[in-house]
Design a protein that fits this description.
By secondary structure, the protein is an alpha/beta fold. It folds into two domains: about 230 residues, Spore Coat Polysaccharide Biosynthesis Protein SpsA, Chain A (Alpha-Beta Complex); about 80 residues, no CATH class. The chain is about 40% helix and about 15% strand. The chain contains twelve helices and nine strands. α2 links the parallel β2 and β3. α10 runs antiparallel to α11, α10 runs parallel beside α12 and α11 packs antiparallel against α12. It is globular, with a radius of gyration of 20 Å. The protein starts with a strand and ends in a 19-residue tail after the last helix.
Length: about 350
C-alpha cells in the first residue's frame, strides 16, 4: 500500500506530523509526501522523519508552490510506479486505526479482487454533501449542480428531485457489512485506489493548478470506467475544520463569505471560480439549451455577488471573481495567479 499526500507552507504541527505518524503506524503502508513549497523547517523535519522511517517515507521536493494538481500528479505518478494500491490523503488527515484494512475489504467486496475498476472514498464530516448522502439523500439530489448548465451551486432551472428510496447499498466483506453510496465527485483526502484502478495510471489535469482538480480527477476516473463509492462507515476526521473558519457571522444581512476574502487570499477565489467556470462550460458542451442555461446561471450568480459587493464595498473581490470566471469560460487555465510560496511566478 502506498499513501500519498501534499503539503505546503508550515503545516507540520497543524496535521502533517500526525498524518505521517498514523500511516507509518501500519507496517503495510509506505508514504510519499510532496513538499509543495513547504517551509525550510518542514523540509528539515521531513528529512529527519525519512531517515527514521528506513525507506518507508519518500519526499518529493518542489522548491516553490505549484498548486495541488501538479503536486498530486507527481505523488500519484511515483506511487503508480510501485504497482501497489494507493490511498490519497490531505496533509491534515490522520489515518484511523484499521482504515487500510477496511478499505481493502470494501474494495474487494465491490469486485476489485476480480479486476473491477472501483475507487472507495472515506466519509468526511467536513464535507456537507457526505453528511447528506449518509442521511439517505440520493447522489442525484446531492449533486444536482452537476447537471449541464449549472454554475457552482446555482441553477435557476433546477427541478426538485425527490428520491423515493435511499441509494445506500450494503457491501458484505470479511470484516462485516459496510454501507456505500455512489459518489460522482471525490475529494482528494481519503480516496482509495485498489491495484486494478491504480494500474490505469490516471492523473489529474495539472493546468487546473488547484481547486476542482479533485473533481476533474474524479471525472477522468469515471471516463476510464471506474465506479467511485463513498464508504459511510470508514471516517477520516480532519485536524482542521475548514467549515468553522469559513462560516460568516450571523447578522440580518449575511455577506457571502467569498466576499470576505482578504486581499492576500484572493488567489483562492480566483482559482475556485476560474476552474468552476471551465468545468461548467465543459459540462454544457455544445448543447444550445445547456449553454443558454449556463449563461443565465452565471449572470444570476455574478449579478447577486455584484449587488452584495456594492453594498459591502468589496468591489475588488467581485472584480477578481468576474475576471477569473471569464478566464474559465474562455478555457484559460494554467498558473494564472500567484500562489503563496511561488515567489509571484506566473506560468506561461
Amino acid at each position: 500500500m502506498t499513501v500519498v499526500t501534499v503539503t505546503y507552507g508550515d503545516r507540520w504541527d497543524s496535521g502533517l506530523s500526525s498524518t505521517i505518524t498514523s500511516v507509518l503506524a501500519d507496517e503495510r503502508a509506505d508514504v510519499i509526501v510532496v513538499s509543495n513549497g513547504a517551509s525550510v523547517g518542514v523540509q528539515e523535519r521531513l528529512r529527519e522523519c525519512a531517515d527514521r522511517a528506513e525507506g518507508r517515507l519518500e519526499v518529493i521536493l518542489f522548491a516553490s508552490n505549484r498548486g495541488s494538481a501538479p503536486a498530486f500528479s507527481a505523488a500519484l505518478a511515483a506511487a503508480y510506479r510501485r504497482d501497489t494500491p494507493v490511498l490519497i490523503l490531505d496533509d491534515d488527515n490522520p489515518l484511523p486505526a484499521g482504515a487500510l484494512h477496511g478499505l481493502q475489504a470494501v474494495a474487494a467486496g465491490l469486485g476489485a479482487g476480480d479486476g473491477e475498476r472501483v475507487a472507495v472514498a472515506c466519509f468526511r464530516a467536513v464535507n456537507p454533501v457526505h453528511t447528506r448522502l449518509r442521511s439517505g439523500v440520493s447522489p442525484r439530489v446531492a449533486f444536482a449542480e452537476l447537471r449541464p448548465g449549472a454554475f457552482l451551486s446555482t441553477d435557476v432551472f433546477r427541478r426538485r428531485v425527490v428520491a423515493r428510496t435511499s441509494s445506500i447499498t450494503d457491501v458484505r466483506t470479511e470484516l462485516g457489512v459496510f454501507r456505500v453510496v455512489d459518489l460522482p465527485n471525490a475529494m482528494w483526502g481519503g480516496l482509495y485506489l485498489p491495484r486494478p484502478t491504480a494500474a490505469l495510471c490516471v492523473l489529474p489535469p495539472e493546468d487546473f493548478v488547484l481547486y476542482a482538480d479533485d473533481n476533474a480527477f474524479s471525472a477522468r476516473l469515471r471516463a476510464a470506467g471506474v465506479d467511485i463509492w463513498l464508504c459511510l462507515d470508514i471516517e477520516i476526521r480532519d485536524t482542521t475544520d475548514w467549515r468553522a473558519t469559513a462560516e460568516p457571522p450571523r447578522s440580518r444581512f449575511r455577506l457571502p463569505r467569498i466576499l470576505r476574502t482578504a486581499d492576500a487570499d484572493l488567489w483562492r477565489v480566483r482559482y475556485q471560480y476560474r476552474n468552476a467556470a471551465f468545468l461548467s462550460a465543459q459540462q454544457a458542451g455544445s448543447s444550445p439549451a445547456a449553454r443558454v442555461r449556463l449563461a443565465v446561471n452565471v449572470g444570476v450568480r455574478l449579478g447577486l455577488l455584484f449587488v452584495a459587493a456594492v453594498i459591502a464595498r468589496r468591489l475588488p473581490v467581485f472584480l477578481a471573481i468576474l475576471h477569473a470566471s471569464v478566464d474559465g469560460l474562455r478555457g484559460r487555465l494554467g498558473h494564472s495567479y500567484p500562489l503563496p510560496g511561488d515567489g509571484g511566478r506566473i506560468g506561461t
